[in-house]
Each structure stands twice: as C-alpha cells, then as structure tokens.
Amino acid sequence: MDQIxxxxxxxxxxxxxxxxRGHRTRAKLLESGREALAERGQHHTRVxxxxxxxxxxxxxxxxxxxxxxxxxxxxxxQCDAEAAALLGALGGVRRGDIDGLAGVLARxxxxxxxxxxxxxxxxRSPGSGHNRVVALSRELGMGADxxxxxxxxxxxLLPELGPRQPxxxxxxxxxxxxxxxxxxPQPMSVGR
Length: 192
Description:
Layout lengths: L2 H8 L9 H21 L6 H8 L3 H7 L3 H24 L6 H18 L3 H6 L4 H12 L3 H18 L4 H14 L7 H4 L2
Helix pairs in contact: 1-5, 2-3, 2-5, 5-6, 5-8, 6-9, 6-10, 8-9, 9-10
C-alpha cells in the first residue's frame, strides 16, 4: 500500500456540503489549506493557518473536515487529479517533440509550485501506484523502470527549477527523450 492510500485510510472522510454556498466554503478551505501546505509543509500546517487564510472560523472548518488530516487528504486528492492529467499529457507528446515535452514539464513545475511538498510524494508514490507507472511507461514507449526513472528525474529537478525557467525545462525534456530512447543528446541544441 502506498503512502497516499495509507493517509486516506487513516484520515476520516471529509464532510460533503449540500448547498452551493457550502461547496464554495469547502473549496475556499481546500484552497487555503493548499496554500498553507505549500508554504509551511505538511507537518507544520495547523487549522489556524487554514482558517485565517480562508477568513472562516474553526467551527466552519470542522463542519467540512473532521481534522487537519482530512483537509490534507482533500488537498492530496486535488493534487492527485491534476498530476494524473499532466502525466496523461506526457503521453500526448510525440517522440522527439522537445518543446512539447518542455511545455508539459513547465505545467508540472506549476503543480510543484502550487502544492509544495504535497506534490512530491504524489510523484514518488502515485495514488494508483504501479498501475500509473505502467500506464506512463506504455504512453512514453519505455519500460516501467525507465518510466519510474523519469518520474524520479521530474521529482528531483523540477522543484529546484521552478516553473519559469524554459531553458531548464527544455534540458530536462532532452534528458527524458534520451532516457526513453527518442532523441540523441545534442548539447548545442539544448540552450537555444
């Protein structure tokens, strides 16, 4: 069982709102939680951090989440959905399309920026674990070991680059293409 599945089983389910206003309030709490988690980290975020950002009370927080762990599980679910879509987009990039791959990597960089340390465990241990790595390996036309290597490369390099360094994303794209057997490294073409 991977880390995210364990967290979901350990944390109680969040309470679902009934009204449109309730959905907006819950969404605001999740967004405030995401911001607090990105800034303070998963183990240092408190309910106070979330409610002060959201402009709500503790009572309102507890209407939607039993505790901070339930909020974290909700933020992880959001990150999981966004990351799955981005990894799916990797499969849509044609072999040899360095600029297309760099564009997807920039979007993954934004995910790291938005979710902070919540994004990194997702890449290391995706919600559906082995199945997602196998699917990615098929989409990229490489073995599961190489796909796992690509995920590790993304996890290690993208947070350090940040989302606004196109040359860095392009360099990582060349590395991924080289790992997947789709490109021959050409140092002169990397830096434009």
